[in-house]
Amino acid sequence: MRRFVCSIFLTCCSVYLSPAAQAEKTLVSVRNVTIEGGLDIGGSAFYLPNVNFGAGSYAPRSDGRYSRAQSPSYGELYGKPILSGRWDLGQGYAVIGKASALGAATLGHGDAQEVSQTSGTPRSVYLEEANIGITLPVHLAGNRQQVTVLGGRQAFAVDDGFLIGKGTYSAGSRGAWWYAPRFAFSGPGVIKLEGNPVRADIFMLENNVDNDLDRGYDRPKTKFVGFDISWFRNTPGGHGENTYADRSAYVTLTYFHVRDADTSAHYDYSYRGDRDGMNVASVSWGGTLFPVKPLGISKNFTFYGSFVSEQNSHAGNGYKSVEAYGMYFEPGYRFTMLPWQPQIFYRYTRYGGNKNPNGTVKRSYDNFFLYDGKRYCYGGYWPGEIVGMYLAPLSDLEIHQFDLTATPPVHLLNKEDSLKLGLHYYDLSLVHPSGFGLKSVGRHISNELDATAEYALNATTSASLAGGVAFSGPSGRALAHSGVPGGYPIPDIGRHAGIIEVYFFKHF
After folding, report:
1. Please, are residues 249 and 288 in contact by the beta-carbon 8 Å criterion?
2. CA-CA-CA-CA torsion sign (434, 437, 442, 445)
3. Which of 139, 223, 276, 446 is the most buried (most CB within 10 A)?
C-alpha cells in the first residue's frame, strides 16, 4: 500500500513539473466559426485502516458472495476530452455547442462503503455533454443582458450545488465513485438570463440513470421543471452573471416541480418512490451580505446558508405525503491582518428525518442532486472523508463542522503557485436513531479530524494530500453493525477509523 500511495504521489509531482497549463486550444478558426478542444484528467488513491470502525468493506463477487477487506485501498482515474464551438452571427448573436466524453476506472478494492459499489476494477467510456444553443442580447429595464437557450445534455448548477448540481451518479461499472467526475443532466434544456445584478434560469431537465450500469445503486429517474433567480454583487472585475465564484454576495430563490420520477420498489430503502409530484423550494445566500466597514466585515466576514423545503401531497409506495427540510448556516471570517491569512468558519447542517421508519408521512430529507459545494475548504458538503463519505446517511443527520485553513507565503515551483493547509473537524449525530430502526441507541455517530495540504501550480493544475482519524459514537457503531451483509459474522466494531488519500487534477 505504501508503494501504491508513493507511486500516485510521484505522478502528482510529475504533473507539477509539466509545462505551464493553457486554456482550451483553438482547433479551427474560420471567419466567424471557432472550435476549441480541451482535456481533463484526474486521479486519486486511498488507504482506509479499520474502515467503518472495523466492520470493513464488502466487495460483491460474481458467485453472489462477498469478499471483506478490513483496511481497503483503492485508486481512481478518469479522462474527459472536450470539444466546444461558437459561430458568431454578429450584433451579439451566436450559435454555441459542446460535446464531451468521459472514461473512468476504479482500481484495487473499490470504494470503502460497507458494500462497495465500485469493486472488481470497473471501467467505462461514455457520453457526458452534448448540447447546442443560441445566445442573444436583450435590454430589460434599460440594462444590457444576455439570454442563452441551451438544449441537450449539459452541466447545470444552482449556486454551488447544495440542491442542484449533479445529474449523473458515479457508481457501479461507471467507476470513479469518490472523484465523481460526471455532472451532466439530460435535456430538454435551460434558458439563462445573464444580467447584473440579477440573473435567472428556467430549466426542464432530468438526471441520467442506468441501474444496469450502476449495479442497482443509481438514483431514481427524475424529470423536473423549475426556475431560479439571483440578486448578486460582483467581485472586482468579476462576471457573476455566469460564474458563481465571482459573486461577492448573493441571494437566490429556487423552485422546481418533479413532473415524473421512478417509483419502483427498488428505491424503497431510502426514497420509497416519493419524488413523483414533489414540490421543492429553497432560499440560499452567501458572501459578504451585511458589510460593516469599521469592523472590517465589508471584506473579511462571510455568511453562507440555505433552507430547502420538500412537499408532496401525493407520495407513493406507502407514503401519504412528504414534509421534509434540509438546511445549513455557515458564518466565516478571514484574518487578513495575520500572517498566512487564516480563515475559519463554522457550518451547522441539519437534514430532517423520520422518528418512525414505517410512518405514512416522510420527513427524511432527499438531497436530490447534491454536489460538492467546495468554495474554500476541502470536502465541500460531505461531512468528513471517513464517516461522512462512507458510512453516515445524508438524511436524518445533524452536523457541526469547524474548518481552519491558512495559506503560507511560500512558492514551491513558480511565483504563481500556492499551498493551502487545513484542519477540518466534524461532529455527526442522527436526528432520530429510531428512523433507522436503531432502538435505545444514543444519537452520536462520530467525531472526525482531517488535515489537508492543497497545492495549486496554476488555475488548471492542482493536487492534494489528506489524512484523518474518526472516533465512533453509539449510533456510528450501530450503523456499522447494521451494514454488514446478512449471513456474515459481525466483526468487532471498534472506536477508531482512519484515512490517507491523495488526488490530482490537470486541465489541458
Report:
1. yes
2. negative
3. 446
Do β-strands 321-334 and 361-362 pair in parallel, antiparallel, or remain unpaired? parallel
Rounded Cα distance, 500 and 386, in Å = 10
Residues 178 and 69: their CA atoms lie apart, in Å, by 18
Evaluate whether 114 touches 482 at the Cβ level (below 8 Å). Answer: no
Burial 468-506 (b: 16+ CB within 10 A, else e): bbbbbbbbbbbbbbebbeeeeeebebeeebbbbbbbbbb
Grid coordinates given for 142? 434599460
CB count in 10 Å sphere of residue 148? 18
113: nearest Cα among 144, 81, 74: 74
d(CA 503, CA 342): 24
Burial class (CB within 10 angstroms; exposed 0-12, middle 13-18, buried 19+) of 244: middle
Contact (CB, 8 A) for 327 and 367: no
**Local confidence pLDDT in tens for the 508 residues of the chain:** 333 333 333 333 333 333 333 458 899 999 899 999 999 999 999 999 999 999 999 999 888 899 999 999 999 999 999 999 999 998 889 999 999 999 999 999 999 999 999 999 999 999 999 999 999 998 877 678 899 999 999 999 999 999 999 999 998 999 999 999 999 999 899 999 999 999 999 999 999 998 888 888 888 899 999 999 999 999 989 999 999 999 999 999 999 999 998 877 666 655 566 888 999 999 999 998 776 666 656 678 899 999 999 999 987 777 889 999 999 999 999 998 899 999 999 999 999 998 887 888 889 899 999 987 777 668 889 999 999 999 999 899 999 999 999 999 988 888 889 999 999 999 999 999 988 888 889 999 999 999 999 999 988 999 999 999 999 999 999 999 999 998 899 999 999 999 999 999 999 9
Write out the three cell numbers for 189. Answer: 434544456
User: What contacts 486, CB < 8 A, 6 or more positions away?
Assistant: none
Write the single-letter amino acid at 286.
G
Separation of alpha carbons 448 and 399, rounded Å: 11
